[in-house]
Design goal:
- Chain B: InterPro entries: HcyBio.
- Chain B: This is Homocysteine biosynthesis enzyme sulfur-incorporation domain-containing protein.
- The complex is a heterodimer of chains A (147) and B (390).
- Chain A contains four helices and eight strands.
- The longest helix of chain A has 13 residues.
- Helix content of chain A is 21%, strand content 32%.
- Chain A has 147 residues and is of the alpha+beta class.
- A four-stranded antiparallel sheet of chain A has the order 2-3-1-4.
- Chain B is of the alpha+beta class and 390 residues long.
- Chain B has two domains: 271 residues, no CATH class; 93 residues, no CATH class.
- In chain B, strands 3, 4, 7, 10, 16, 17, 18, 19 and 20 form a nine-stranded antiparallel sheet that branches. A four-stranded antiparallel sheet of chain B has the order 6-5-8-9.
- The longest helix of chain B is centred in the N-terminal third of the chain and has 19 residues.
- The chains are: A alpha+beta (147), B alpha+beta (390).
- At the A-B interface, loops of A face strand 13, strand 19, strand 25 and helix 7 of B.
- Bound molecules: iron/sulfur cluster (2 copies).
- One iron/sulfur cluster binds next to helix 4 and strand 8 of chain A.
Chain lengths: 147, 390
């Protein structure tokens, strides 16, 4: 096997399920058919029966991509978590307070430069930083009807 | 009086600044210079060291006068700016807006932890940004001041007088905060996770103003400073100033000690260095950029400005139980150098460190002040009265 195939590929994705398919065992299909490891980071079903799920999937890269394609075939909207979160670079003061609560170290202090680095790939869009940042520099897109 | 080998005066240094000949270093560079050349040579070669900090400074506010806007005359009894109440118990149209005052209808901590989205600090930032704010005033009406209310949009340029007037800034040393309880707490030192999982600290270390002049040999009433991107002055000791704390052999306090009262015209300030803050679960505040020039008058002052991060000992305190119960226990001291490293050992446990003071912006303040002095735009002042210190 080439190195590329064996290397574990990891991705945080956000799924939006239309009400019709809320009941289907789609996530377990990811595990069974594509041999992926799935870590549920956040789950929510609105009163209108729309479902939202934030997952970390990991496995062979090719299988991850196939799994995502499968989700899309099932009418699930798949977005990259990193597209849902942003930092207002003009506003960020690089104080460091957000690093206290970021559970994934997506926000972390560069000890040399004393700047707070934001690594979107590690972010799970949990939203904790949006409440803690004293100048509101972190923004997470909120799902429709999510609040 | 101690006698020194190097003796310079502020007047001489100012003359060199005017001629564009003054040698100015930021406090980081000075630490290196003193290490390299020793205090005496450093005192001969360097004229001014610029310090800087950019940190939450809750005891800040705006003293302003709205003028007599439209006839008839008004003596304000209650004043709001963007629905944030100001104190109006002063003559006719003077008011004071505190940085930590939230909007009147803020839900506070009713839904815990509260967000405190907007307050006095935000009004100050908005004014400096040139934004129009909603000014509202009520009065009871008198023969000389018949008007009973006022409601209009106003910008900073329309205010006849608006000065930042901060009763307590620039704390010389501060507590490093931890939480020994088993639930997360939200404090003015930021969020503290349960069971000693993070330690939050606020200072710019060796570039912080009051670590560079720990015994107030040069800073006093009338010292001209960088304040919020403009020019300000030290008015004297701030509230809660402690003149005689326990000190290290370098004169650095081992506990929160000296503080400054500061004032400056808001109209010359820059929103990059004045930011309204919302502290989850605690309240509103203002981050203020302050830079203080230290004239290197003799080798003792050169030596003080040679302070390094490893010299600074910060007291670790428990904000979960001890602080709210007024228990003075200091768990231990940790150096600023260790705090900067990302992890320190407290009570035998490795604890993640979390800064609250922006180091890059603090350094930017020191460097901006340095460039003002180098360009001859900023002259030093002779303090009228030094701050109490022992
Ligand atoms: S808390 Fe906000 S301002 Fe401070 S470093 Fe994090 S994102 Fe930037
Ligand atoms: S949303 Fe914020 S706190 Fe949560 S993982 Fe992403 S960066 Fe960290």
């Amino acid at each position: 096997m080439s190195e590329q195939q064996t290397k574990v590929y990891r991705k945080n994705i956000h799924l939006t399920f239309p009400p019709e398919i809320s009941g289907k065992p789609i996530v377990s299909d990811l595990v069974r058919r594509y041999d992926l490891t799935v870590n549920i980071l956040k789950a929510q079903i609105t009163p209108r029966k729309e479902g939202y799920l934030t997952l970390e999937i990991s496995g062979v890269e090719d299988n991850c991509l196939k799994g995502i394609a499968y989700l899309r075939e099932q009418d699930v909207t798949v977005t990259d978590v990193s597209q849902r979160i942003s930092r207002d670079e003009e506003s960020c003061m690089h104080c460091g307070m957000c690093t206290a609560i970021c559970p994934t170290s997506a926000l972390a202090m560069d000890l040399e430069k004393r700047l707070v680095v934001f690594d979107k790939e590690r972010c799970t869009a949990c939203g904790l930083c949006t409440r803690v940042c004293p100048v509101g520099a972190m923004n997470v897109e909120v799902e429709n009807g999510g609040l | 009086m101690a006698s020194f080998k190097v003796n310079k005066t502020i007047a001489e240094i100012n003359e060199r600044i005017r001629q564009g000949k003054a040698v100015v270093l930021n406090a980081e560079e000075m630490t290196e210079a003193v290490r390299r050349m020793g205090k005496e040579k450093a005192a001969r070669e360097i004229d001014v060291v610029t310090t800087g900090t950019f940190s939450p400074m809750c005891s800040s506010g705006l003293l302003f006068n709205i003028g007599q806007q439209d006839p008839p005359t008004l003596k304000t009894a209650k004043v709001w700016m963007n629905d944030v109440p100001a104190y109006a118990g002063l003559a006719a149209v003077d008011s004071y807006l505190g940085a930590t005052e939230p909007t009147e209808d803020d839900p506070l901590n009713k839904v815990y932890p509260g967000r405190f989205k907007y307050g006095g600090g935000h009004v100050i930032e908005d004014l400096v940004r040139g934004k129009a704010v909603h000014l509202r005033a009520e009065a009871y009406g008198t023969d000389c001041y018949p008007r009973k209310s006022l409601d209009k949009k106003i910008t900073l340029s329309e205010l006849p007088y608006a000065h930042l007037l901060n009763p307590r800034n620039c704390y010389q040393n501060y507590n490093a905060a931890v939480n020994l309880t088993s639930r997360i707490i939200y404090t003015y030192m930021g969020p503290l996770k349960p069971n000693l999982r993070n330690v939050n600290f606020a200072t710019a270390g060796r570039i912080s103003p009051l670590f560079n002049d720990p015994l107030f040999r040069t800073i006093g009433l009338g010292t001209r400073i960088f304040l919020g991107g403009g020019t300000g002055y030290v008015l004297g000791a701030g509230t809660q100033h402690v003149a005689a704390p326990k000190r290290t052999e370098r004169g650095l306090p081992l506990s929160p000690a000296g503080t400054l009262m500061l004032k400056g015209d808001l109209k010359g300030m820059n929103p990059r260095y004045l930011r309204g803050l919302s502290f989850l679960g605690y309240g509103c505040s203002l981050a203020v950029g302050v830079g203080i020039p230290i004239p290197i008058l003799n080798e003792e002052i050169a030596w003080f400005t040679g302070v390094d991060d490893s010299d600074i000992q910060m007291p670790v305190k428990d904000y979960g139980h001890d602080y709210p119960n007024c228990l003075p226990r200091v768990i231990q001291h940790v150096t600023y150098e260790d705090l900067k490293s990302g992890e320190v050992e407290i009570m035998g446990k490795k604890v993640e460190t979390v800064p609250m003071t922006s180091y890059p912006l603090s350094l930017e303040v020191a460097n901006t002040l340095k460039s003002w002095i180098e360009k001859g735009e900023f002259l030093l002042t002779e303090p009228v009265e030094l701050l109490p210190s022992a």
